[in-house]
Amino acid sequence: MTKSIINALIGILVKDNKLNIDDFAPVPEWNNPNDPRHSITLKNLLQQTSGLDFIENYHGKSDVTQMLYQSGDMAAFAASRTLKFKPGTHWYYTSGNTNLLSRIIRHTIGENEYHSFPYRKLFSKLGMNSFIMEVDASGTFVGSSYSWGTARDWARFGLLYLNNGYYNNEQILSEEWIKQTITNANSNQHGHYGLHFWLNTEENNNSSTRRFPNVPADMFYAAGFDGQRVFIIPSKKLVVVRLGLARTPKEEFGANEFLKNVINSIDS
Domains plus CATH for the chain? Predict the structure, then answer.
């Protein structure tokens, strides 16, 4: 679910006119215009359509396990990957994209304010007072992973998105940012991903193609490791946090039926 925290931090910088997600990603390793990775945009990183050759497999040695467990500078590791697909044409979920975004936040904010930035601009404003983000050996927040919070912390985070970026009398994220967040990435053939949030959208008005067919199509959610979830359902004015462990294929814990029962309980 940490990836969705990165969405919020990027959204704050976009609101403050410090970043434009349609710009090329400011990654120093890709500065040469002749480098094919130079054309990767911030939006490509957010939509998981960067096209980088990066394997996300936690069940053996892969790019993601090397990055998380053997690399002291995770963004530099991700930046060293070559290009496999033209940016914006192929969807593939990778933690490398997120750690590049985390370093971009660092470079945008500057060293003096970077490590306090998430706490000043997001966590303290939402009352996420138990929340912690870990850094790698280079000092960059591990944007893909390694954040810790209580269920109430995560519920407050969900409420920010439920209320279109508005919380405690402040527009922390713009309404336009929320709209972009829950817009399907064009290159995602399954139609289930926005900007570092998962969607419950359907294809061709066929509800059976939704990940959770018994749950409204407007639901979107932050997905963490082994079944941790923050479900946001605007049409029901509902945020549901689940922090249990699900070591099953596709981290399945019966979420479709679980959410259906939660919705039925508040509708009755």
Answer: 1-133 (3.40.710.10)
> Which residues, 6+ apart, have CB-to-CB distance to 235 below 8 Å?
216, 218
Strand-pairing partners, residue 112, are none
Distance CA 201, CA 210 (A): 6
Handedness of CA 268, 160, 115, 141 (dihedral sign): positive
Strands lying side by side in the sheet with 229-233: 198-199, 220-223, 229-233, 238-242
Place of tokens 């490509």: 44
Kindly list the distances between the CA atom of residue 30 and the CA atoms of 89, 106, 118, 187, 199, in Å, as whole numbers in the listed order: 19, 17, 26, 23, 31
What counts of helices (H) and strands (E) characterise the chain?
11, 8
Least Cα distance to 49 among 101, 104, 94 occurs for: 94
Q: pLDDT digit string (tens) for 151-187?
A: 999 999 999 999 999 999 999 999 999 999 999 887 6
Structure pTM?
A: 0.95
- Is the pLDDT score of 242 beyond 60? yes
Report pLDDT digits (tens) over 55-71. Answer: 999 888 999 999 999 99
- Which structure tokens are listed for 226? 């082994």
Rounded CA-CA distance 145/225 in Å is: 8
